């Protein structure tokens, strides 16, 4: 849980920002949307205040915020052009957007998400933008697994991790050519703005940066490969990405030459997280969690031609 007094201070910040935009906003209640060690998010009326990860620095966050402000048709733009310091955490304010409804999976905006990612990947890489943090986050999840959880499940996941190329483990630079990447795409990174029925936009710039664009397709690809995403939904997503001119995969034919490494890495990351969480909660793995571990156990070494980069 977030250490006192960050959460009430963040709620006060959200309220002040909301009232500055709409003095009679009609709401005097703050709602906590997330309260995790890596992010705390509070909503007040039409404004959201976010405390970014403790390791965030202005040198990396400011270029990411600037990029979001410059791409309002792809990324939700911040209300604050620069982060403030609040109890040792960098804090920004954002307009509220309506998220994807997890209770209505049939309405998931796969085509819209694919088009947004394709648009992002086609944007010329902004100068001064940090590297995309996807591999680094995967490496952090594996490091936590190594330090906290022995056992057969962890062994399978670590073996799959060790078979990945160095760049996917954040042990070497990501291969060229680099693109502008979201870095942590999943359906929770989409909102409608203006709420409730505006266009879909990508949110969360904490991992935004330059890197391998196939990483942004890696999580849906991993879910599909593990049997957790229906083939029709995967096909719609991939077709929409290609139709929008996305450069992460070949325009036609087999996409897995580009997707194999990111899909494996994100399967490992997710499996490492669920094993660590289950161990902390003192329980066994559920069916979906075990499916991810089983997928890691089935992984074979990555072919040599995929270890150095992605297809040009």
Measured between the Cα atoms of the first and last residue, the distance is 44 Å
What class do helices, strands and sheet pairing give?
Answer: alpha+beta
Q: What's the number of structural domains?
A: 2
List how many beta strands DSSP finds: 10
Mean pLDDT: 92
CATH class of the largest domain, anyone? Answer: Alpha Beta
Uncertain parts = none
Oligomer: single chain
Tell me the strand percentage band: 5-15%
State the CATH topology of the largest domain: Aminoglycoside 3'-phosphotransferase, Chain: A, domain 2
Share of residues in helices:
40-55%
**CATH architecture group name of the largest domain:** Alpha-Beta Complex
Features:
2 domains; Phosphorylase Kinase, domain 1; alpha+beta; 9 helices; three-stranded antiparallel β-sheet; Aminoglycoside 3'-phosphotransferase, Chain: A, domain 2
């Amino acid at each position: 849980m977030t250490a006192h007094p960050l959460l009430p201070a963040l709620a006060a910040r959200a309220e002040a920002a909301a009232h500055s935009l709409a003095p009679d906003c009609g709401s005097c209640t703050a709602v906590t949307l997330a309260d995790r060690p890596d992010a705390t998010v509070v909503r007040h009326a039409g404004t959201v205040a976010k405390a970014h990860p403790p390791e965030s620095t202005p040198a990396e966050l400011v270029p990411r915020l600037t990029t979001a402000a410059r791409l309002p048709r792809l990324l939700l733009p911040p209300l604050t052009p620069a982060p403030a310091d609040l109890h040792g955490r960098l804090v920004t304010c954002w307009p509220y957007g309506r998220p994807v409804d997890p209770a209505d999976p049939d309405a998931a905006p796969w085509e819209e998400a694919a088009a947004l990612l394709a648009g992002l990947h086609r944007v010329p890489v902004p100068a001064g933008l940090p590297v995309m943090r996807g591999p680094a986050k995967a490496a952090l999840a594996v490091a936590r697994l190594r330090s906290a959880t022995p056992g057969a499940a962890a062994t399978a996941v670590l073996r799959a991790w060790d078979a990945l190329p160095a760049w996917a483990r954040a042990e070497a630079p990501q291969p060229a050519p680099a693109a502008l990447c979201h870095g942590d795409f999943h359906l929770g990174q989409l909102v409608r703005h203006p709420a409730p029925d505006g266009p879909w936009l990508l949110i969360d710039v904490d991992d935004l940066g330059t890197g391998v664009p196939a990483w942004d397709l890696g999580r849906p690809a991993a879910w599909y490969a593990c049997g957790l995403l229906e083939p029709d939904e995967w096909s719609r997503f991939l077709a929409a990405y290609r139709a929008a001119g996305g450069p992460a995969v070949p325009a036609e034919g087999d996409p897995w030459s580009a997707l194999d490494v990111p899909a494996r890495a994100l399967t490992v990351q997710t499996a490492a997280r669920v094993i660590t969480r289950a161990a902390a909660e003192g329980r066994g793995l559920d069916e979906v969690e075990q499916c991810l571990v089983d997928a890691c156990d089935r992984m074979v070494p990555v072919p040599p031609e995929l270890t150095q980069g992605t297809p040009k």
